[in-house]
Design brief:
about 325 residues, about 0% strand, mainly alpha
């Protein structure tokens, strides 16, 4: 394990973790969107899926009659395979049609499709355009997403003032954009406002806001407060926060009863939540016997998982086992 300090937040969609021997970075405060697989032919038979499937003709008729929500619903049917084979091109077509009809949620989802290439095409400019239209139609998630786009210059020219404007609007109309706005103020150097918005996001059970508040406190050497926020985020299923709490114990920034057992528990939770560095450290725990009996077999198992999750140091370590 290495001594960890707060890294620079990247504005990707998923948690970015540095390789072995480097400092991990906090999870990026971007929108959270599902990532359905493209090209599958499995038909979903959940209760929700059955409801959508039973309404397929109704949704289609409503969409054809100019109801944007009907287009959004038929898109969901094709995206998730509710009563039909998954077809991401059809799913995209219908959210674009819904957006044309003035349905804000459809605009936002069309933006997601182009942002992440769900239908096979990545177009950041088109994504930002759809987010902007959705925000103009008072969809809070779209305002959050166009704010993020301006914050990291994705599909638009980077502009922190415009990012602030759209994130503030997102909050006003009910979107939980507190974490993103907190991060924006941290970028601007206004740590008091950053703390305030992280707290508000954490109070609304956004685990990334709790985690980022922990990193902010850690940067300010408020170690007990930082640890408490990491534990709160960990309990909200934030894998990298579990790892950050474990590292604080390892680096003796906080004192806890049975530190070895607590580190092992946190590393286990982190790995279960698919944190690559958490799995790497769990493997290390088994290698040297931190909070558990030594086991080369278990160490190899978790290095393999860490490697599959993209932890390059673990891939290298497997060559020596």
């Amino acid at each position: 394990m290495q001594v960890v300090q707060k890294g620079i937040l990247s504005l990707g969609v998923v948690l970015l973790v540095a390789g072995c021997g480097s400092e991990p970075t906090p999870e990026a405060p971007k929108k959270k969107v599902p990532q359905p697989m493209n090209g599958q032919t499995v038909v979903t038979t959940t209760s929700e899926g059955k409801v959508y499937a039973s309404q397929k003709e109704n949704y289609l008729i409503r969409c054809q009659n100019g109801d944007g929500q009907g287009c959004r619903d038929i898109s969901t049917l094709y995206e998730k395979g509710f009563g039909a084979a998954k077809d991401m091109q059809k799913a995209l077509y219908y959210v674009e049609r819904g957006c044309e009809l003035g349905h804000g949620s459809s605009c936002n989802r069309a933006g997601n499709f182009y942002d992440h290439g769900y239908a096979g095409v990545v177009d950041k400019q088109k994504a930002a355009s759809y987010y902007m239209k959705g925000c103009e139609l008072n969809n809070g998630t779209a305002c959050n997403n166009i704010g993020n786009s301006y914050m990291d210059g994705s599909g638009v020219v980077k502009n922190l003032d415009l990012a602030e404007t759209y994130l503030q609007k997102a909050i006003r109309i009910g979107s939980n954009a507190y974490n993103n706005l907190g991060y924006l103020y941290e970028m601007k150097g206004d740590l008091q406002k950053a703390e305030s918005y992280y707290i508000q996001g954490c109070e609304r059970k956004d685990p990334t806001a709790c985690s980022n508040l922990g990193y902010l406190y850690q940067k300010e050497k408020k170690f007990t407060a930082a640890y408490n926020q990491f534990i709160k985020a960990c309990n909200l299923a934030h894998g990298s926060a579990c790892h950050a709490a474990s590292m604080m114990i390892y680096n003796k920034q906080v004192q806890v009863a049975s530190p070895s057992s607590e580190m092992f528990k946190l590393d286990s939770n982190s790995c279960e939540l698919n944190s690559p560095v958490g799995c790497a450290d769990l493997a290390y725990d088994y290698t040297v016997g931190i909070g558990t009996a030594k086991s080369t077999k278990e160490a190899k198992r978790y290095y393999q998982k860490a490697c599959k999750l993209g932890h390059k140091g673990s891939c290298e370590k497997l060559k020596t086992l």
